[in-house]
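OP here, attaching both records as promised.
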Amino acid sequence: MNINIRSITNKLDIIHATLATYTPDMVIITETWLQPSTKDNEILPPGYSILRVDRCNKRGCGFAVLFKDHLTLTSLECKTPQLDSAEIICTTLTINSRKTLYIIGCYIPPGNNVPVIECLLHWASSTLSQETFILGDFNLDWFACDTDHTIHHINSHGFT
């Protein structure tokens, strides 16, 4: 599940109700607008853990991955200079000790984001060897960009 929340603190009832209704194993939440001073237990519903990248002192930032306590997610380093404008969490999820999935959650601010997306796709396809899921808010205006080029780039890295 992926949610662009635009401030999680004033929507905790909605988040908790959504999680109770649909019981997803994992939720990617963009634009949390959290500050580092906010403690995890202030926002977490029972039965969930969290990985987060907090607000970067400007509007529209912050990112979190909520996941059920029985899951083991391991955070990976996902840093290249070309990705500095994006908020990214890269994690591994191992299922039954046999299958590893990579889950990348990202928030890419509006602007010249096609090169950032292309860099992320290139990094993921050249670095990660297993199945990879990329979720988040890409702020991609499909009408303003070269859609054919972007789709070709997505497909050329094995993503759909």
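Record two, same layout:
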Amino acid sequence: SSGINAEYGEEFIMGCGSSQIAAGANGAISNFPNIQSTHSLVAKHVTQEIWDKLHEHVTATSGFTLAKAIACAVEFDNQHCGIYAGDWDSYKDFAAVFDPIIQEYHGISADAKHTS
């Protein structure tokens, strides 16, 4: 869940636990997050460059942000992947993060094709 801190005009995103992450009006965190799960795939693949490119983006379907997607890796120090898609747009909109994490987790190459 989230709430608005009217005094500072910030939205607080409730992460996977109880701590709060300060966010701007669109739910985006401007500063590079302190990823507690330092050995997670999020820590490996969410770089400053990618963060700077994607942190202000909000998905059309449910208003999901990269900060919300990686909240568990930011809050907890025991995550392996540390990322969750909030809607189907997350996979497309944050592909620069999701694609390499999914590929590494499943041991597939970037050019792999799914067959049925």
